[in-house]
Automatic annotation (TrEMBL):
Keywords: ATP-binding, Membrane, Nucleotide-binding, Transmembrane, Transmembrane helix. It is found in: Cell membrane. This is ABC transporter ATP-binding protein. It comes from Sporosarcina contaminans. It is a multi-pass membrane protein. Residues 16-298 form the ABC transmembrane type-1 domain. GO terms for molecular function: ATP binding. InterPro entries: AAA+_ATPase (IPR003593), ABC1_TM_dom (IPR011527), ABC1_TM_sf (IPR036640), ABC_transporter-like_ATP-bd (IPR003439), ABC_transporter-like_CS (IPR017871), P-loop_NTPase (IPR027417), Type_1_exporter (IPR039421).
Length: 580
């Protein structure tokens, strides 16, 4: 809670002013029964019209002040709570962005989305309501009690009859509430996860006719959310009747014993009326308690979930020392005995991998699916750090480069092309926001996507992503490659990013990349692509099982020969099909 609410600190003066205004409003409310008592005892019963007019006017003036204070309080409360939520959302977003992959994988995406949306709204509402009514209700209870004692101690004591039971009951309910609402937020995470998966996979779901199946899956998680929320709310709904029962019993005691006190002359009618008035105000305030406990419980659960994110320890150390050199234009890359385990896994995904790529060389990486190719590539820009061994870029261990320097020098094209909503131009300049337009077009030409873009009516201003044109798989791959080229990387990493290209386009792409001053790592399944590389690294179950040129591997590696043979058979079948 502390970390989350520390984001309200910059608005402490707004909060203080809002609280003072709220106290002003509250004081007026508390003084009013006292004035009523005075009007009854000294005005009505004493038949003194002047007293009635004087105190009546004071009451009116005070009501106006309370009205004004309430209005301004709302203004400050809204401003403080909205600004607090804005800052908190920014902080959470930045924190999630700064996560290492290892930390990121600890939180399901849907959970992060819920934290950034519904959880923040929950604490924002609590701050707003806190400044408006939540604090006001308990203060009204305490204030009314104090005022009741000021009016008549004996009568006020009857109001306290139910206090201990009430207090214990409220504490128990508040504790239960936090646990129940934490569960509700978890269920909401799961609902969000199913929604997210469904929206992403909408085409697949249609193609597999899995709409009904997914609807059932959604019903199940939505039903769990409903059940948990109902349980929590039912528990909370107990609060109001119990509170009212206790308060009404206390009120009965006041009236019962109050009548006796008036008859014996120990109390006046006006005093009894004032105390009943305070008791009614306390009851009214208590009726807010159910709502307050629900809101506080939800906000506490939400704050704890956000705190998990804000306090998540990031273990990726950024070398902040002096930059003693720049990564060369064509980065030299060396893996020395690199092993890697995914967090919490017992089996290594990479097992003592060593190889060297000289500046400007092109290394093709091959291996069966799951061999560890993508994992290996992710270690270069330090998406993960190796568990053992070292990786050197331009002669320096990757952990010794400042992270920005290292990542600036790398152009990574992931296996799945990811584009952002916006124009083609915006997607290209995402690679380097300072790159001039002609460089963006140059990159597009090299990536063999310029001609396709030219055919769109709006050319580079064509919108992609949601509500924009849907690019084909191959177009997306080429756009992703162009985006990486815009960075003018020293090391260009293509993770199976040409799989959707036809042979002609791919050949043109490799020809265009020939002139690029970059060391290249290319994951590929195609022997044809590997043949064009200076060296080929063959991975199997995380181990290097072959390294050399195409000719070397044809000679040394049975696995490579098998892949080559299967692909030449495939080509033969295609040839036959084409000629028949
Ligand atoms: N985040 C993760 N946590 C645990 N295991 C993972 C994670 N990501 C990948 N793996 C496992 O690591 C192994 C290697 O995965 P990787 O993606 O590196 O393989 P790959 O050779 O690129 O495969 P493909 O050619 O199919 O893309 C796989 O067995 C995969 O299940």
């Amino acid at each position: 809670m502390k970390t989350v609410f520390s984001y309200a600190k910059p608005y402490k003066w707004l909060i203080v002013i809002a609280l003072l205004l709220m106290l002003m409003e509250l004081s007026v409310e508390l003084i009013q029964p006292l004035l009523i008592a005075k009007i009854i005892d000294d005005g009505i019963l004493a038949e003194n019209v002047k007293v009635i007019w004087t105190w009546g006017s004071v009451m009116m003036a005070l009501s106006f002040i309370a009205f004004f204070a309430g209005g301004v309080n709302s203004f400050f409360a809204a401003h403080a709570s909205q600004s607090f939520a804005f800052d908190l959302r920014q902080a959470l977003f930045r924190q999630v962005q700064s996560f290492t992959m290892a930390t990121f994988l600890r939180f399901p995406t849907s959970g992060l989305i819920t934290r950034l949306t519904s959880d923040i709204t929950m604490v924002q509402n609590v701050l707003f309501m806190g400044l408006r009514i939540m604090l006001r209700a308990p203060l009204l209870v305490v204030g009314s009690l104090v005022m009741a004692f000021v009016v008549n101690v004996k009568l006020a004591l009857y109001l306290l009859i139910g206090a201990p039971v009430l207090l214990i009951f409220l504490i128990v309910m508040a504790r239960k509430g936090v646990g129940l609402f934490a569960q509700v937020q978890k269920r909401l995470d799961r609902v969000n996860r199913v929604i997210q998966e469904n929206l992403q996979a909408v085409r697949l779901i249609k193609a597999y006719l899995r709409g009904a199946y997914e609807a059932t899956r959604f019903s199940k998680v939505a039903d769990l959310l409903r059940k948990n929320t109902v349980t929590a709310m039912r528990m909370m709904e107990l609060i109001l009747p119990v509170l009212l029962f206790i308060m009404n019993a206390s009120l009965m005691a006041v009236l019962w014993f109050g009548a006796g006190e008036i008859q014996s002359g120990d109390a006046q009618v006006g005093e009894l009326v004032a105390i009943v008035n305070y008791a009614l105000r306390m009851t009214g305030a208590f009726s807010m308690f159910a709502f307050i406990i629900v809101s506080l419980s939800r906000a506490k659960a939400s704050a704890e979930r956000m705190e998990e994110v804000l306090l998540a320890n990031d273990d990726l150390e950024d070398h902040q020392g002096e930059i003693s050199g720049m990564i060369d234009l064509e980065g030299d890359l060396r893996f020395e005995d690199v092993s890697f385990y995914y967090p919490g896994k017992a089996e290594p995904i990479l097992d003592r991998v060593s190889f060297h790529v000289s500046p400007g060389e092109k290394l093709a990486i091959m291996g069966s699916t799951g061999a560890g190719k993508s994992t290996l590539l992710n270690l270069i820009p330090r998406i993960f750090d190796p568990t053992d061994g070292e990786i050197y870029v331009s002669g320096k261990e990757v952990r010794d480069w400042p992270l920005k320097e290292l990542r600036d020098a790398i152009g990574l094209v992931p296996q799945q092309s990811i584009l952002f909503t916006g124009s083609i131009m915006e997607n290209l300049s995402w690679g380097d926001t300072d790159a001039p337009v002609d460089e963006l077009e140059e990159a597009a030409k090299k990536a063999q996507i310029h001609e396709s873009i030219d055919l769109f009516p709006k050319k580079y201003e064509t919108r992609v992503g949601q509500k924009g044109v849907n690019l084909s798989g191959g177009q997306k791959q080429r756009l992703s490659i162009a985006r990486a080229l815009v960075r003018k990387p020293s090391i260009l990493i293509l993770d199976d990013s040409t799989s959707a290209l036809d042979v002609k386009t791919e050949t043109a792409l490799w020809d265009a990349l020939e002139g690029e001053r970059a060391t290249m790592l290319v994951v590929t399944q195609k022997i044809q692509t590997a043949k064009g590389a200076d060296h080929i690294l063959l991975l199997d179950e995380g181990k290097v099982v072959g390294y050399g040129t195409h000719a070397d591997l044809m000679e040394q590696s049975a696995l490579y020969r098998k892949i080559a043979q299967s692909q030449s058979e495939e080509e033969a079948v295609i040839d036959v099909a084409n000629h028949s």
